[in-house]
Amino acid sequence: TGRLDGETVFVANVMIDVRPRVKNLANYVGNALLVNGAVSPLDLFLKDCSPQVLAAVACSIRRMVDGIDERYCNQMGHILNKYPCSYVDMVLQITKMTNSFASTNHTRFKYYEMDFGCGPPTLVRPAFLVFENDFVIMPAHPDIGGYELAFTTVPNVEEAMKQSEYW
Fold first, then answer.
1. Considering the chain, what is the average pLDDT of its residues?
2. Hey, which residues does 66 pair with through a beta bridge?
3. With contact defined as beta carbons under 8 Å apart, do 80 and 86 qualify?
4. Which one of 56, 91, 118, 159 is most buried, counting C-beta atoms within 10 A?
């Protein structure tokens, strides 16, 4: 959470791959990523979770991601080249924030199609979860289908999740 124009807001920081947005980066090797935040009023999250609340947050994130164009990526590239520590400094500041959570979406990774000579894996789990409220969304085994969510949390959040029909 943070404050914007005197209002307490929720900021969803999203990692964005710039490759499809910038010409001549198709063969780039490395993390061509930017972190950008989608802002939603915190009041939205103080209500019961509903499809309308989820849709409002999803729309906020979609508008932010859609706004990342080649010009924006190039400007950020210039800043990061001039001040290379700025990216790491920001990530470190995020890890120090209280009342925050980190989520990672691995749903596009083809974990169960990887074969290093012993056949595809029978079970895939995240190596570790870093933050107090750390979420990783992963594809479930193909025999099961859908997605799995691995997370760490604190007791009051866990209790609220147990009470919610969406969990």
1. 76
2. none
3. yes
4. 56
Determine the pLDDT at residue 60. 86
Retrieve residue 141's tokens. 């085994």
Task: List C-alpha distances in Å: 61 to 10, 16, 68.
Answer: 11, 11, 11
**What is the DSSP code (8-state) at residue 137?**
E
Quick check: 143 pLDDT over 90? Answer: yes
Residue 16 has pLDDT above 90, yes or no: no
147-152, strands of its sheet edge to edge: 102-105, 134-139, 147-152
* pLDDT of 117 above 70: yes
In one-letter notation, the amino acid at residue 45 is F
Instruction: Please state, in angstroms and as integers, the Cα–Cα distance from residue 91 to each residue in 25, 31, 94, 97, 102, following that order.
Output: 23, 14, 5, 10, 11
Residue 90 is predicted with a pLDDT of: 62
CB 121 within 8 A of CB 154: no
Contact (Cβ atoms closer than 8 angstroms) between residue 151 and residue 135: yes
Is 11:38 a contact under the CB 8 Å cutoff? Answer: yes
